[in-house]
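Budget justification aside, the reviewers requested a transparent look at the raw inputs and outputs of the sequence design task funded under Objective 1. We therefore reproduce one unedited record. The lines immediately below are the structure tokens for a 250-residue chain.
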């Protein structure tokens, strides 16, 4: 009975998501009993086979963790994804720190033009780091390749110069093994929870944004609560988490 309630909740959430936050395909499909049965079956299969085991070893356990900066009264923990020849660190916040839409303009966007990029490199940058800490954050050239996974061909836009950014789809796959959901699940901070971040029923994990576009330029790719990439979420979705990434000096 509990699993059927979950299925009903997923169907309701899916309907709300498509009506409010979905991409721009406005074709109304014919909904029949057989269609509903197929959707329920697909959801049950995903729940039974792919749902995260939340009693397993803590996500991100294989990464070195450092503390750098504070946000909303909480010290920020970062996982170290990589280092370069000079010892600089490529880091990603261990937790989702806030709840911010990818974009608020209701227009086609890329990472270069989205409001999340502006927020990360202004509001967040100034709120989270002291002047000394800011001096350690490297202005990085960020590549923004087209989204070609899953048969898509969505333009990624121009390269950018950023202090703070979100991971790309390719980086999430490379560093977090996102296609296998190995290290890509993410818990929110207490502050993000207080901002009503979306948590599916009793899950401890949230959705979080990548910088890559989704199925078109009014969608952005994100990592679902179960750790798998999704490409169909509208950029204005208000309840998804932000995990900043950056390069810093040792």
């Amino acid at each position: 009975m509990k699993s059927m309630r979950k299925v009903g909740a997923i169907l309701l959430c899916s309907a709300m998501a498509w009506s409010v936050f979905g991409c721009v395909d406005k074709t109304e499909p014919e909904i029949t009993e057989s269609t509903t049965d197929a959707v329920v079956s697909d959801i049950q299969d995903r729940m039974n086979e792919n749902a995260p085991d939340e009693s397993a070893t803590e996500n991100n356990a294989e990464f070195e963790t450092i503390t750098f900066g504070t946000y909303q009264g909480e010290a920020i923990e970062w996982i170290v994804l990589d280092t370069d020849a000079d010892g600089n660190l490529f880091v990603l916040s261990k937790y989702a720190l806030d709840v911010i839409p990818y974009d608020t303009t209701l227009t086609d966007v890329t990472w270069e033009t989205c409001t999340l990029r502006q927020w990360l490199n202004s509001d967040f940058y100034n709120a989270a780091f002291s002047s000394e800490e800011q001096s350690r954050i490297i202005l990085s050239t960020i590549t923004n390749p087209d989204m070609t996974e899953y048969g898509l061909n969505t333009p990624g836009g121009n390269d950018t110069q950023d202090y703070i950014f979100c991971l790309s789809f390719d980086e999430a796959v490379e560093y977090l093994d996102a296609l296998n959901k190995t290290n890509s699940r993410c818990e929110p901070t207490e502050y993000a929870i207080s901002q009503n971040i979306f948590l599916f029923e009793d899950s401890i994990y949230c959705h979080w944004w990548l910088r890559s576009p989704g199925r078109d330029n009014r969608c952005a790719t994100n990592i679902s609560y179960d750790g798998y990439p999704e490409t169909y979420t509208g950029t204005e979705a208000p309840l998804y988490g932000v995990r900043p990434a950056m390069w810093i000096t040792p």
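Residues 1-21, 24-57 have pLDDT under 50 and may be disordered. The longest strand covers residues 74-83. Computational costs for records of this kind are itemized in the attached budget.
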